[in-house]
Amino acid sequence: MDEVGKTHKQAGMIALILGILGIIVLFIPFPWIGFVGIIFGIIAIILGLMAWKQKDRYGLVGLILGIIVIVLFILMVATMYWSVSGMIGGTG
Asked: Residues near 17 by Cβ (< 8 Å), separated by ≥ 6?
């Protein structure tokens, strides 16, 4: 296998691993850890796109997982915002 093919295979595998780690880290119950998960998700998207252009299936899965990480992060932040604003607003 030539060096270029090996590099793209590694990019797809790294995207897959970072996508999985991003989802796992996102659910650790410390606020600042979520930002580490979003960074993993962004890197997974970038590497996944690079590998997917080279027809690497791991790259496609890493890309999808990276998108899932970002969507979950946005949903979690929105949920926390609505919860806090409800407590401050004094709905009770």
From this structure: 62
Name the token pair of 48: 């996944």
Residue 70, phi then psi, degrees to nearest 5: -65, -40
pTM, two decimals, is: 0.80
3-state secondary structure the chain: CCHHHHHHHHHHHHHHHHHHHHHHHHCCCCCCHHHHHHHHHHHHHHHHHHHHHCCCHHHHHHHHHHHHHHHHHHHHHHHHHHHHHHHHHCCC
| Residues 44, 17, 62: CA angle, nearest 5 degrees | 45
- Distance (Å, rounded) from C-alpha 28 to C-alpha 5? 35
pLDDT in tens, 19-48: 999 999 988 887 778 789 999 999 999 999
Please answer whether residues 10 and 50 qualify as being in contact, where contact means their C-beta atoms are separated by less than 8 angstroms.
no
